[in-house]
Amino acid sequence: MSDAVLEVTDIRKQYGETVALNGVSLTVQRGEVFGLLGPNGAGKTTLLSIAAGLTRADSGSVKLFGEPFTRDTRSLRHLVGIGTQDLSIYPDLTARENLRFFGKLYGKGGKTLESRVDEMLGAVGLTDRANDRAGTFSGGMKRRLNLAVAVVHAPKLLILDEPTTGVDPQSRNHIFEQVKALSAAGLTVIYTSHYMEEVQTLCKRIAVIDNGTLRACDTLPNLLKRLDTTVRVTVSGAGADFSQRLQAIPGVKQSRPTPPSPLPEGKGEQAREPTVLETTFADNSFSPFPLGRGGGGVGSPTTFEIVVEDIGPVLARVASECVASGADLTAVTTTEPTLERVFLNLTGRGLRD
Ligand SMILES: Nc1ncnc2c1ncn2[C@@H]1O[C@H](COP(=O)(O)OP(=O)(O)OP(=O)(O)O)[C@@H](O)[C@H]1O
């Protein structure tokens, strides 16, 4: 049996002139927490809504647990739970009534539903407020209840569209921990958020969409490998040709005297955006490159920026070049690749609203 819980193939969706999805295909595997990232208006909610059977695609197909799934498919609906970006809960119902309502909507009832409702209230920390109207809740409590109603019918696939937006750190952490617990219990989760650290921590694989198109879909380590590393090398007493010497080191893709920040911007997957490992040693006495201390050392320090794919083999050569050119190596600064930089590399820095 296939391990694919959700397979979307070549999904297209247009709202008037706006192309929300322009042929998106992806597969979510059983048991994984799958991250979906994209700037505002990228098409995430539209995709999730089609995947959950709430919106009809113009073309393309959705399979849920290997079965064709559309807005008209009733039999598979109970397998999916969706925590919508705009809250689904009813403000005039109490927390308990909301949970009962959504449970019944999916065909649950009786003692099983009542005990599930109690379980969910406890899981999201709302037992004490069970009989209060949801409209009286704080933003964090509403978000927690929104999560509970998404899973009250015990779905097999949980889709969460920005579940922690607009909540305080306590509620955010609570929701985050609940998602981890649900995942540990075997639920497959699709998680979309603008908080990169949430996605980086939770998700096994991550898709990035932009302008209705899938830009990348891979594991976090593989996404991070797309980035080059930029190393800032500060030396005193460097000769005029020092940048060229650095450029000549095997593995150095680019070298130049200190450019203005920010780092050069890559475009799409063709360009690998430089990133940096923050490891600065400003004090020469702690320099890990004692061999790099040449006899020169005169003049004010100059910083060069080099772009490398793999920092390891290059650093020793940088130190050797300092010795050879009689310069003092005074600092090396690098920066860790992050999901945020991968995201910006894939989607650009232009504002989207
Ligand atoms: N019901 C609709 N009618 C018209 N246009 C829509 C509708 N829903 C979405 N759109 C448009 O489709 C595009 C994709 O929107 P969508 O909400 O899917 O993006 P998103 O990635 O979820 O954005 P955000 O991060 O802001 O929630 C946007 O240009 C949006 O304005």
From TrEMBL:
Residue ranges of domain ABC transporter in the record: 6-236
Record carries keyword Disulfide bond: no
SUPFAM superfamilies xref list: P-loop containing nucleoside triphosphate hydrolases
Residue numbers spanned by region Disordered: 249-271
MF-aspect GO terms: ATP binding; ATP hydrolysis activity
InterPro entries cross-referenced by the UniProt entry: AAA+_ATPase, ABC_transporter-like_ATP-bd, ABC_transporter-like_CS, P-loop_NTPase
This protein's UniProt keywords: ATP-binding, Nucleotide-binding
Keyword rRNA-binding belongs to the record: no
Coiled-coil residue spans: none
Cross-referenced Pfam families: ABC_tran
Name of the protein described by the UniProt record: ABC transporter domain-containing protein
Organism of derivation: Gemmata massiliana
